[in-house]
Design a protein that fits this description.
By secondary structure, this protein is of the alpha/beta class. It has 16 helices and 13 strands. It binds ligand SAJ.
């Protein structure tokens, strides 16, 4: 099997880097996305998302003619589906993007093609995708009915790259490859070997789906443990960061770091896919989600307490109090504000204390509209430290860690990352 043309459906944070990395191996890559702006931007050799090094790889791939983007699917030897899988209001997974991707590629599928689902998905989604494809193309055979003799091969290969390190991790990370049959897995391994240096480990589709959900749930549960400890330690007047550092000296203990909550589009979402399938059984996983989702509210309560202390113990009026939020990104040293607990906390404060909130975020040049609407201002570290009554540390960016700050006696610090304590 040789893959002369590869199509990547969904040109977002995973799809575009994947398309560009395959194209950099001099394979013809057709990227498909419903977003015309994204398609036009990529065809100019530019990018519409932020990820280190991605611009260079995309520009080279487009200029050399190995990568092009389009809004309608074209024939290819392999199709990689990398579309979002959000959850609905009731935490049930929303597979609508996968269904439209399947419907988009179905008309151009031909005998011998491989279809790989990369989107993080609840267990059973790869089989569901194959069923949608089969429904749209009754003239072709699929693994669910024809096993190893099917016309089309189908596999799941979850993406596992860390935002901010995508280009390196796409190549270096091991890949879990879950084919619907052994042959499907073999074909998928051959495909990934074009650009992956890590090991391609074979399993079945359901296990591959669960592996990805398990990795992110592992992080979520362990961060929840750290977050719960931070709340307990606050009550008991113990520095949780010192405590964790001490406990982690034990050779078999490795506690993660507490923070203002869990952000991003993966760790706070994927555990729900397990909970939605097995609600009665996924008790710990569900509780961890609740603990982590409750942390921003707890930080806000601490800020309120600090404000109330100042009002009661000084001559300051409520309207005079200045609050500075340090960091709004969803994790350190990136400019990604999506699903950020730090942003949610800042927005809640800005909405309640209109005109009294400043934001320090070294990774962005201007504030998002919903902060500007509440008269929040973007300022530098020094002025925020100098001019604020309440300092709310939300993200442990390197600039904050490097800053040496000295607080006045009247100033209150709520440090959700424990770096200025
Ligand atoms: N966080 C903590 N304490 C910690 C570590 C993280 O509060 O000790 C918070 C971060 O501040 C952030 C959130 O958790 O808000 C998630 O950050 P992260 O860096 O742990 O992970 P993501 O969401 O950027 O990427 C994860 C990765 N998964 C794992 O590490 C198991 C990545 O490899 C996946 O590819 C990605 O999810 C994904 O796409 O699923």
């Amino acid at each position: 099997m040789s893959f002369k043309t590869i199509s990547v459906v969904g040109l977002g944070y995973i799809g575009l880097p994947t398309a560009a990395v395959f194209a950099s191996r001099k394979v013809q890559v057709i990227g498909v996305d419903v977003n015309e702006h994204a398609v036009d931007t990529i065809n100019r050799g530019d990018i519409h998302i932020v990820e280190p090094q991605l611009d260079i790889v995309v520009r080279a791939a487009v200029t050399e003619g190995y990568l092009k983007a389009t809004t309608t699917a074209e024939p290819a030897d392999a199709f990689l589906i990398a579309v979002p899988t959000p959850f609905k209001d009731n935490y049930q997974p929303d597979l609508a993007y996968i269904q439209s991707a399947a419907n988009a590629i179905a008309p151009v599928l031909k005998k011998g093609d491989l279809v790989v689902l990369e989107s993080t998905s609840p267990v059973g989604t790869t089989e569901q995708m194959a069923a949608w494809l089969a429904q749209a193309r009754p003239d072709l055979t699929f693994p669910q009915t024809h096993g190893e003799n099917s016309d089309i091969r189908v596999a799941h290969c979850p993406e596992r790259v860390l935002p901010g390190h995508v280009i390196r991790e796409l190549v270096e990370n091991d890949r879990v490859i879950g084919g619907m049959t052994a042959k499907c897995s073999q074909y998928a391994v051959e495909l990934y070997k074009i650009c992956v240096h890590g090991e391609c480990v074979i399993t079945n589709a359901r296990t591959a789906e669960m592996a990805k959900l398990t990795e992110n749930s592992f992080r979520d549960v362990n961060i929840a443990f750290a977050n719960e400890l931070s709340i307990i330690c606050d009550e008991l007047d113990i520095n949780v960061w010192e405590l964790i550092a001490l406990a982690n000296r034990h050779p078999r203990v490795n506690i993660l770091q507490p923070g203002p909550g869990v952000g991003g589009h993966c760790i706070a979402v994927d555990p729900w896919f397990i909970v939605s399938k097995t609600p009665e059984l996924a008790r710990l996983i569900h509780t961890a989600r609740t603990v982590n989702d409750g942390k921003p509210g707890w930080v806000l309560e601490k800020v309120e307490q600090a404000i109330s202390d100042i009002v009661h113990h000084s001559s300051k009026q409520l309207n005079d109090i200045q609050i500075a939020c340090f960091g709004v990104a969803f994790k350190p040293n990136i400019d990604d504000l999506r699903e950020s607990p730090a942003l949610d906390i800042s927005k809640a404060l800005a909405a309640k204390y209109q005109g009294q909130v400043t934001i320090v975020e070294p990774n962005i040049k201007s504030l998002p509209d919903d902060l500007l609407a509440h008269d929040a201002r973007l300022v530098d570290i020094e002025s925020a430290v100098r001019d604020s009554d309440v300092l709310v540390m939300l993200v442990d960016h390197k600039q904050f860690k490097e800053a040496s700050i000295a607080l006045g006696e009247q100033q209150k610090l709520i440090d959700s990352k424990g770096i200025w304590l």
